[in-house]
């Protein structure tokens, strides 16, 4: 009888340690995915900051050319302000969409104004911003992949149990706003 009691204790201890090892493995997997999401967002944030820093130069170049629509420049400056004031991923994603839309409008101005299009400064900034937008697109894809992996893990059993206990919640993907999917209007009115 005594050996049966010891056997039950050993069996119980093994079950306990197995459950602990299982919980630790799930915890470490969730932490790893969360870190990947944070790293992916940090990579996006770097590109967004670089784009943010290019805008004052772009505005300065645009203002050198008298007659360009001030409303387009104002919308760019306002969008930049909104991005600069954004805190947290959700606000930055929304403000980034506004900024992308404003930038598309500004860059489209070059199509309607040959002297601006021929400006070396404008061409350089246009190329730089286009390259940043391409990098942003690539990094957005990577971010969305890591968010999807994390969201999947926190909804699948058995990970969902521990994820709920630890307070993990689904994260939104970095999606393109509907306004960014349309082409900017090139119907510009000459000022003056």
Question: Can you describe this structure?
Answer:
The protein is rod-shaped, with a radius of gyration of 26 Å. The protein has a single domain (30-181), classed as LemA-like domain (de novo design (two linked rop proteins), Up-down Bundle), CATH 1.20.1440.20. With 192 residues, it is mainly alpha-helical. The protein has helices at 2-64, 70-85, 88-112, 114-117, 120-155, 159-166, 178-181. It contains seven helices and no strands. Helix content is 81%, strand content 0%.
CATH superfamily, by name, is LemA-like domain
Low-pLDDT ranges: 183-192
Main pleated sheet: none
- Count of separate structural domains: 1
> What is the H-and-E element order?
HHHHHHH
CATH topology name, in short, is: de novo design (two linked rop proteins)
Span between termini: 102 Å
Summarize the structure.
This protein is 81% helix and 0% strand. The protein is mostly helical and 192 residues long.
